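Residues and backbone
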Amino acid sequence: MKADSPRDTVSIAVYTKLPSSESELSHFSRNYSVVICRYDRPDDLDNEEAVLAGYCNPQYESVEVVNYCVFTDTDIWDNVEQSDLANYLSSFIADVITARAYVFGFGFGVATLVAFVYIGLLQIPFLVAILVWSCVLLVLLCLLGLGYGLWVTAVDWDDDGTKEDYIVTAAYACAVVAWVLAFLWTCLFCFLAKRIALAIGVIKEAGRSIASMPIIVFWPVVELVASIAFVAIWMYYAAYTASLGDITTKTVESDTGGYDLSYKVYDFDQQVQYRGWFLLFCLFWTLNFITAMGQIVIAMSVASWYFARHKSHVGSLTVVSSVGKTFTFHIGTAAFGGLIVAIVETAIFSTNFCTSARNAFYLIARNIARVAAVSILGEFVLNVMTLFVCVVTTLGVYVAMDSNIRSQLNSLVGPTIMTAVLAYYTGKMVTGVYGMAITTILQCFVADEELFPPSQQFAENDLRGWVDKHGAPTEVDSGPRQQSSGTGANQFAFS
């Protein structure tokens, strides 16, 4: 290959006889005096002359590290500027663009499908407990199996003597650690068994609200479409910004002779770097704004269901009404803050963001034991769901890319990480329907006690009894109690 003009190279050949045995092949792969040359290399030129004439590619001794060639001679690293963040970013973007169908197909489409299947199963009451305890048991079995596998492997290594003693000892130690973690995991959930049962009960009640408004399950699709539209526009500006760098030429002296190898890199000035950081900020803020808008819609819909005397009258039209109220009154709340409790307070009482944040703090302070008993475990269950979606999707995209387009990528790491991020975001968005329902019902219940006398409260079934088992409200000096404005979610209850 002509080093200073790769595009002029049509084909290459190794200027030596082909290796005929495994030992010759091993020697060939480590013989850095063997150079790769064009077919038209003159026979009268030695390696150094051929490199200087541009017929052969200069060679550098290197080792493979995570699918990249790393120079073994540190002096070369002193001469060659190591790949900086911009160069890694360029490779990352190139791989993502090449694998875009897999990244976005799995990151959004497959992740959404997996999340919908999981959340659909949670709407079946008797399966909630099975799913929750199955996750707990699965983690326990994985820890036990990991410990057993490590122990058996350590025994085999110890018997055949193929590994160093410290490696065998480390394997034994890891096996013991896995078993200790399995024991602690068992103790933890034996201690939390009743609280997990309480969280399961709240999830069932949240499932009732979602079952009454089935269209709410598809609200994340609206968020998904909005997110895809924004990311598509954002990538256009990101690609434009990435192209603003100045192309500079770097040179390095070859080990095979006085030939200087030239290559080109992108250098970005301070202004372009600031643009990149600003685009990253816009990405995070806008995606969270889209999520917050969805949270308000879900919270307002679930609050309307809770504060309805006749819950059979609540349906999908309630979600449509909540969308209208959100876009009319609460866009600023979603844009200004992402505090979930403040969003729920806004949905229930129709107050502004600052007032809602203050009221939410005092509401939780007055009912700290009740809220803590369910919200933490509820979030744990939902985080397990989100992690499940992320892991399944990431594993799927890795297998798919490894089977189909591995040779087209610099590395599978970049597209896989990008898919994992998108899958996590998608899973969090979809499973957030249940999370917001749980959070809203909890706050609706404790607000219900303050707004109405016992005979007029809206709590149904065993919800009040489940929460009361974990403590009465803790009274604090929290200022005036909350009052309904009649324009929030509970307006539905009074109509």
